[in-house]
Amino acid sequence: MDDKIYEPLSIETLGARLGNVEAVASKIGPDNSNWDVKEVGDGNLNLVFIVKGELGSVIVKQALPYVRLVGDSWPLPLKRAFFEYHALIRQNERAPGTVPEIYYFDEVQAIIVMEFFAPHVILRHSLMAGKKHHGMANVLGLFCARTLFRGSDLSMDAAKRKADVALFVDSVELCDITETLVFSDPYFDADRNHHTPQLDPVVARLRADIDLKVEAHHLKAKFCNNAETMLHGDFHTGSVMVTEDETKVIDPEFALYGPIGFDVGMLLANFWMAYFAQPGHADSLGARADYQAWILSVIEEVWTVFCVEFSRLWRHERTGILYEKTLFEDQGHDLASEQALGHRLQDIWQDTLGFAGVEIIRRTLSLAHIAENDMIEDEALRADCEARGLELGRHLVVNRKGINSIICANDLARVIGQRNSTLKSGEKQ
Ligand code: SR1
Ligand code: MG
Q1: Pick among 1.10.3210.10, 3.30.720.120, 1.20.210.10, 3.30.200.20: CATH of 14-115
Q2: What are the residue boundaries of the structural domains of the chain, listed by start?
Q3: pTM over cut 0.90
Q4: φ/ψ of residue 298, rounded to 5
Q5: Most C-beta atoms within 10 A of its C-beta, which of 38, 178, 307, 364?
Q6: Half-sphere exposure of 80 (CA within 13 A, CB side)
Q7: Helix, strand or coil for residue 234?
């Protein structure tokens, strides 16, 4: 095999191809004929292998030259592995201990060998199973605050940040996926869209909703024009791994420079969708009420921890070119600094709500849905859960400037979640 020519790995070839890479062999053991290799990729894009040997285990992730979910009719550049590698390095510096350690990177083969988190599971699966995770909200809130603050002009050296913006701006194709699937496709009858048939009347209403379309596009403009910080870029509950008391963040291949509220909004959206999906996973009526309350408490804590940590970093780590201490605290203007912080958090809050809303809408109407809904076999029940999400999503996008706190946002979810079905039985198509 020519190492200079990209070739996808397989269970059969992985041992021979990575066996002589010292950084890998030292983690799992030198005898590659003994390596146990399993392909476990259940995401939309890549090959993912767990490789076990006598010394330990690693994850081997390799980009495919196309979108795995769709097939080779949708080509996708291998360089997304390069962006994931660079994002992981930066996240590890900014939120140490939260993301996998990288053992080896091969740019030509688009392979990253990294730390295997075991016995962690993907949070999305755990949310379907009704499992709670101690300390998770705290880790996620801290991760957001630390990576988003420390990747911005509030913290970074200006020249380094500009170099980073230039580096990630080349991630054109993955950015295009988000620009298209999140902000445009849901609002018209795009080819790749699909939805649960019972939602037809709701979907027709949403696509005729001018206020929603305009606001969703204002959010798209913000996403495209506002290179505020390095985002994870795909921060949903499939990008989080958990045990009962440990939480890790994976998969930043969609990393790009964008608005701070995007990551936080996407995360909260996925918790709200999990909240609405619970009746589809309950053994009996109301059996998941306590679990739903826990999900809302997670949302509240993530946002609260984010604000507290962001404020702490503002006061103690504001070393960038924005709101310089020389201009504020050093002039005796501590209060002005607090005023500016309040304004920034208010902007981030409104962005967070808006991005959460578009994320809920796209995960229901566009190409890539969420397992919590897809796994509900009863179509009418699935449509009911999804319709509740869509109602919240629309409200968040259109009315985000009038929602004053995370308590109010959760109250909206609770009201929408507890009312009688919004789908009329006669509306089945
Ligand atoms: C074609 S990729 C579809 C979605 O999967 C990824 O996880 C991202 O969320 C993307 O939007
Ligand atoms: Mg992913």
Answers
A1: 3.30.200.20
A2: 14-115, 121-418
A3: yes
A4: -65, -45
A5: 364
A6: 28
A7: coil
Can you tell me whether residue 62 is helix, strand or coil?
Answer: strand
Ligand 1 centroid to residue 219 C-alpha, Å? 18
Which pLDDT belongs to residue 1?
56
Pick from 100, 92, 132, 119: nearest CA to 293: 132
Cα distance from N-terminal residue to C-terminal residue, the chain? 54
Query: Do the domains 14-115 and 121-418 sit in the same CATH topology, yes or no?
Result: no
At 329, list the tokens: 């605290």
Which ligand 1 atom is nearest residue 44's CA?
Answer: 5
Q: Are 91 and 229 in contact (CB under 8 A)?
A: no
Q: What percent of the chain has pLDDT over 70?
A: 98
Dihedral of CA atoms 312, 315, 317, 323 in degrees, nearest 10, equals 130
**pLDDT tens digits, residue range 399-421?**
999 999 999 999 999 999 999 98
Tell the CATH superfamily of the 121-418 domain. Aminoglycoside phosphotransferase (APH), C-terminal lobe (3.90.1200.10)
Q: How far is CA 26 from CA 29, 57, 100, in A?
A: 6, 10, 17
Q: How far is CA 122 from the centre of its chain?
A: 12
Tell me the pLDDT band of 427, cut-offs 50, 70 and 90: very low
Nearest by Cα to 384 from 298, 285, 290: 285
Cβ 99 vs Cβ 91: under 8 Å: yes
User: What DSSP string runs through 81-119?
Assistant: HHHHHHHHHHHHHHSTTSSPPEEEEETTTTEEEEE---S
What is the per-residue DSSP string for 374-425?
A: HT---HHHHHHHHHHHHHHHHHHHHHGGG---HHHHHHHHHHHHHSPPSS-G
pLDDT in tens, 105-127: 999 999 999 999 999 999 999 99
Q: Which protein residues are within 6 Å of ligand 1, measured from CB?
A: 43-45, 67, 69, 177-178, 181, 234, 367-368
CA–CA distance from 410 to each of 265, 392, 414 (Å)? 13, 10, 6
- Which amino acid is located at 212 in the chain? L
Q: Name the DSSP letter for residue 152.
A: S
The whole-angstrom separation of Cα 153 and Cα 320 is: 5
Cβ(160)–Cβ(321) below 8 Å:
no
Residue nearest to atom 11 of ligand 1 (CA): 178
Closest-lying ligand 1 atom to the alpha carbon of residue 181: 11
